[in-house]
Amino acid sequence: FPDLVLETWDLQCEHNGREHRTAEMGHQQLVVRRGQPFTITLHFSGRAYEEGVDKLAFNVETGPCPIETSGTKSHFAVTDFPDESGWSAVVQQQDGDALSISLCSPPSACVGRYSLTLEASTGYQGSSYHIGDFVLLFNAWHPEDTVFLRDEDERCEYVLSQEGLIYQGARDYITSTPWNFGQFEDDVLPICLQLLDTNPKFLRDQNRDCSRRNDPVYIGRVVSAMVNCNDEDRGVLAGRWDNHYEDGMSPMAWIGSVDILKRWKTFGCQPVKYGQCWVFAAVACTVMRCLGIPSRVVTNYNSAHDTNGNLVIDRYLNETGEEERRSRDMIWNFHCWVESWMARPDLAPGYDGWQVLDPTPQEKSEGVFCCGPAPVSAIREGDLQLKYDIPFIFAEVNADVVYWVVQPDGSQKKSTHSSVVGKNISTKSVGRDSREDITHTYKYPEGSEKEREVFAKAEHETHSLREEDEGLHLRIKLSEGANNGSDFNVFAVINNNTDAERVCRLMLCARTASYNGTVGPQCGMKDLLNVTLEPRAEQSVPLCILYEKYGESLTQDNIIKVVALLTEYQTGDIIVAVRDVYIQNPEIKIRILGEPMQNRKLVAEISLVNPLAAPLNNCMFVVEGSGLTDGQQIKELEEPVEPQAEAKFRLDFVPHQAGLHKLMVDFESDKLTGVKGYRNVIIAPQPK
User: Fold this and answer.
1) Is 468's pLDDT higher than 70?
2) Known catalytic membership, residue 277
3) Which of 257, 279, 523, 650 could pair with 275 in a Cys bridge, judged by C-beta atoms 3.0 to 4.6 Å apart?
């Protein structure tokens, strides 16, 4: 027999992409999921492959120094039946000189970029052909993959969906902002692989790092560290919280991860300026989904940042409600992290499922700014000793808050205040644009027997400050929405639940604030020295907050923190109430003109009314949407937008993917920033 000569071959990128749900990633390259077969076709010249005469074998290699013992290299012959334990190749069909072969990786293979080589031999003669490269991803569809997720709707949302909603605002006024994860957009996969190859563990020991890329726990920890740049590790994002973002992008301006990842790569892996928690979380979510690990962005309202690990957040106020002597402990209005779905074979049974990864740089873990993966079930059960970083996250959702009021003589008085940490933990619902509350996955109902057991295990006093029915109650109420550009009222509502008349002093103070709890200048104040409360009665005291007072110092987080202090003269007791008021931005209106169809021109009419009493200058709309627009579309308006006038423009675009997509819009100007809007658009497939 003459030698078997390979003439051409076809990696069948399109067909394999459809089968492996990676079609949008790989028009040019082969992208497949582990444990699932993929087909390639070989064409020989001169003569066809003869079974029994010719021997075919493949080599797959990943990483800079592949070796068989660490799982980064494998050599396997073409056989009649697949091998369950390792890589395998099986003849599917033969048609003339064309031979179809089905290749399959084990469901525990390392993910990453592989090179594929064919060895063809007849007798003692043989030739070797480099057939090309392919990328191997985690496989949430394979029951033996450690990221296996049973429900198809959940796999679609947490692995395949390229857009989502991230919850922000305040606990009493939850807002959602659209986000373009874009994990299948061009260049995102190579950037994610580059991120793995830039991480310090890879640079220290390339072979060990590549051999551990079969483990989603390891990958999650690497991604959590690499999304922030706090370790001189060439991470993706620089964090900043001081409202000075002139030398970069304001964290509020981003509407997607693709722009951020592309900038990181373009500027030679220099950190992109700037991120805050939801930006870090969203970029990490993109990278994890891109690699095939089911992931979602989660928001925790009233999130405690407990620096000394005592599960108590101490706040100090003076008699006018101003913060004194700041401890490093903080309460953030909200804090976002990522949950990724994976088994935890490294732990005892019972900790598989959702794991917290928090890429926002807050505290070091094993010497590096990363956090997790921490099993949500371990947080709920108070198992603080398990890997990784559970005490810090346990505190974020469970710490107690104690307000100390500092008297003029320097003495401190502990106030009563019902604990509010870890509320309304939220994520986008599966397949719908509504909010799913997942607080119950992090903690047992307050006051339940289970909750007490967990706190005892975590060596944490149960919340001591339960609201008693007796005595005085204080809360802050908002009668109607607070709109940017308008004045509005807040009310201190006092209940006297006793049979005696009480005389008190009431202090009400409003300040602009950032979402991480820092406050700015005062924008409203009332001090009533003589409030008489009738027995068993309720009294409501208004405070008017004027736009002319808050407009100048409102941060891009749009939050005003209202503090009320009620001092009872008879007993000297002090009650504190705090409420974060979210100032609503105007709505962005999006109209779609024309019939939405794949590869046919569509027009979006996008507008917003200026609600302020002053003109808006340097107005700009940024529009993007996976499958709809070709990257980001930016429209700068030449004229200022006068008060109550409309900023408006038309965008032409050609959607290239059928199905449901989100067109997302961000509006920027000198006085109104980070205004977001989106519109769901269903694109009909192109007629065949």
Assistant:
1) no
2) yes
3) 279
pLDDT of 510-523, one tens digit each? Answer: 999 999 888 899 99
Which stretches does DSSP call E strand in 25-124?
30-33, 38-45, 54-62, 73-79, 88-95, 98-104, 112-122
Per 3-state DSSP, what percentage of the chain is helix, strand, and coil (rounded to 5)? 15, 40, 40
DSSP lists the bridge partners of residue 53 as none
Would the annotation count 50 as a binding residue?
no
CA 324 to chain centre: 33
0.90 surpassed by pTM: yes
| Pair 114, 136: CB distance under 8 Å | yes
Q: How far apart are CA 451 and CA 462, in angstroms?
A: 8
Percent of the chain with pLDDT over 90: 73
Our answer to whether residue 358 is catalytic in this structure is yes
One of 20, 305, 335, 417 is an active-site residue; which one?
335
Distance CA 277, CA 301 (A): 12
Q: Taking a C-beta distance cutoff of 8 angstroms, is the pair 339, 442 a contact? A: no
Q: Count H helices, E strands: the chain?
A: 13, 37
Compute the distance between CA of residue 77 and CA of residue 59 in angstroms, rounded to an integer. Answer: 9
Highest mean pLDDT among 43-52, 64-73, 186-195: 186-195
Place of tokens 């709309």: 621
Tokens at 511, concatenated: 């300040």
For residue 316, what are its two tokens?
């100090």
Tens digit of pLDDT for each residue in 584-627?
A: 999 999 999 999 999 999 999 999 999 999 999 999 999 999 99
Instruction: Say whether 363 counts as a known binding-site residue.
Output: no
Q: Is residue 359 within 8 Å of residue 283, measured between CB atoms?
A: yes
Strands of the 435-437 sheet, one edge to the other: 374-375, 353-357, 330-342, 295-305, 423-428, 435-437
Q: Per residue in 391-434, pLDDT tens? A: 889 989 988 888 888 888 888 888 766 567 889 999 999 999 99
Q: Is residue 259 among the annotated active site residues? A: no
Q: How do strand 173-180 and strand 163-170 relate by DSSP bridges? A: antiparallel
Q: Which of 209, 233, 358, 389 is catalytic?
A: 358
Catalytic one among 277, 285, 290, 370?
A: 277
The torsion angles phi and psi of 175, rounded to 5 degrees, stand at -115, 160
Structural domains of the chain, with CATH: 5-137 (2.60.40.10), 152-456 (3.90.260.10), 472-582 (2.60.40.10), 588-683 (2.60.40.10)
CA-atom Rg of the chain in angstroms: 29
DSSP 171-199: TTEEEEEEEE--TTSTTHHHHHHHHHHHS
| H or E element that contains 154 | helix 152-155
300 is an annotated ligand-binding site residue: no
Tokens of 663: 């067109």
| 8 Å CB contact between 292 and 137 | yes
Does 451 count as an annotated binding residue? yes
